[in-house]
Amino acid sequence: MSINIQALLAQLLVGLINGSFYALLSLGLAVIFGMLNIINFAHGALYMMGAFCAYFLLNLFGIGYWWALILAPLTVGLFGMLMERTLLQWLSGLDHLYGLLLTFGVALIIQGVFQNYFGSSGLPYAIPDELKGGVNLGFMFLPIYRGWVVAFSLVICLLTWYLIERTRLGANLRAATENPTLVRAFGINVPRMITLTYGLGVGLAALAGVLSAPINQVRPLMGADLIIVVFAVVVIGGMGSIMGSIITGFALGVIEGLTKYFYPEASNTVVFVLMVLVLLVKPSGLTGRAT
Amino acid sequence: MVETTTLDRTKPASAGNALLSVRDLQAWYGESHILHGMDFEVRTGEVVTLLGRNGAGKTTTLKSVMGIIGKRTGAITFDGHDISRASSDKIARRGIAFCPEERGIFASLDVRENLMLPPQVRPGGLSLEQIFELFPNLRERLKSQGTKLSGGEQQMLAIARILRTGARFLMLDEPTEGLAPVIIQQIGRTIARLKTEGFTILLVEQNFRFAATVADRYYVVEHGKIIDGFANSELEANMDKLHTYLGV
Predict the structure, then answer these.
(1) Smallest Cα–Cα separation from A174: which of B222, B117, B72?
(2) Burial, A195: exposed, middle or buried (Cβ in 10 Å; 0-12, 13-18, 19+)?
(3) Which domains are present in chain B?
(4) What is the C-alpha separation between B217 and B213, in angstroms, rounded?
(5) What is the pTM of this model?
(6) What is the pLDDT of residue A262?
(7) Is residue B48 a contact partner of residue B201, using CB atoms and an 8 Å limit?
(8) Candidate from B67, B108, B117 with C-beta closest to A186
(9) Distance between CA atoms of residues A126 and A128, nearest Å
(10) Which of A29, A166, A176, B106 is the most buried (most CB within 10 A)?
(11) In angstroms, what separates the C-alpha of B209 from chain A's closest C-alpha?
């Protein structure tokens, strides 16, 4: 079989880009699940809100991409914290099913509202001027924006990992994930930490949405399509480690990309096939701790 | 208020005021009514021990004071403040520190992070150097994962981390449970040392031989109520009664 290097690398790049989104989103999901014990089905809708936020910032206020990278996660993050305070906090201690159903319902509402105003078709969002064009690497042509997405996502993922695994704040978060009652009995305001953690996870989703806007179109259902794959990624990676979520996200993106080159018919299903295999062999996921 | 309670029969060693005052404390775990009206007090600078059989409600009492029990009623006053309705983080910030029976060392944190986790609630907490002086083993294990420590080391870590906070009222739940005699002695020395530094300690202990080395007063708990109390000086005289209460 002759390998068309150009086509392979092109698919690899697409795979890395998708992997970036998988990593950012599964990271947020893992952090939320660890801390709140909620399977956040609203994650895809919040990713979509991030993209729309960037769109509104540009088209209503003339605020461009670079500001959107900060403002959209902050805005959607605040919305997420409001959601946590008004809806999610009442589910604490209940079976996972309730969190799943509630956030699923919220996702449907959010998506329904956006569909009502914007229909199902996509809205355009331009690549910022500074990131337009491409660079010829010799073995392939690399569009600058796409390279930026992968690099920036990696940096954000690593910063998040560092925050959680290496800082005092992260230690508080890890401890509260393990034993929130005891952490609170030391004098730490755990409910506030929980709200902020949800905001962090949501902010990561919204950031992914902003990154995604110039590549994919800004559409109300953009998150719904993505979230199913992200859940499969989370199942495969397990909730056990932050680094595990990041690596699994990127790796599965690449695997998907490679499958698209070598056996395109399977590219839509390869992640789910892997998920089934992992569930059969190690249900807690590759890095998960068996509970 | 006018009834003679067991409190009147105990003569505390120190003449301090009541730092913790508990009146008619009732508590529930879900549907189970565990405490049926606990009445006791702990005066500043004292070491008071709650004795009693398993299931008597000793741990539940500590948890009720700390505010981590499901439902509680009654009057709990600490340092002049009513804490009977307060959330546990607010109670901790009043200057109370709790060392649970299961120790609660976090597996996802290393020893140093475990040690540094509880925030300072009062000035004057022990410095790291002072803590390593009390518990030299901890200095070498700082980078180990918290739960990789032995039972004795975990107990020392659990006590060490609350000493950092500056809280002057400590509640220790079965600190010697399951530990080797050598470690138990070390913990006894630590508590004695804390006592000389003016700490007030509420201790739950099954091992009353150990408690006898540090306690000023005892209360006996049975079925969620205080049924007896005596000073340390009266311990020998009450030995037979104690054996009956504890079923040993």
Answers:
(1) B117
(2) buried
(3) 16-106+164-246 (3.40.50.300)
(4) 11
(5) 0.88
(6) 87
(7) yes
(8) B117
(9) 6
(10) A29
(11) 29
Q: Give dist(CA A209, CA A214) in Å, integer.
A: 10
Q: What is the pLDDT of residues B29-77, one digit of tens each?
A: 889 999 999 999 999 999 999 999 988 999 999 999 999 988 999 999 9
Mutate to test the interface with A, among B29, B88, B172 (most CBs of A within 10 A): B88
Amino acid at B199: F
CA distance B36 to B26: 5
In the numeric block, the tokens 């105003």 are attached to A117
B87 inside 8 A of chain A by CB? yes
User: H or E stretch including A254?
Assistant: helix A242-262
The DSSP-derived string for B145-173 is BGGGS-HHHHHHHHHHHHHTTT-SEEEEE
Domains of chain A: 5-281 (1.10.3470)
Whether B110 and B161 have beta carbons less than 8 Å apart is answered as: no
Torsion on CA atoms A95, A100, A103, A105, rounded to nearest 10: -110
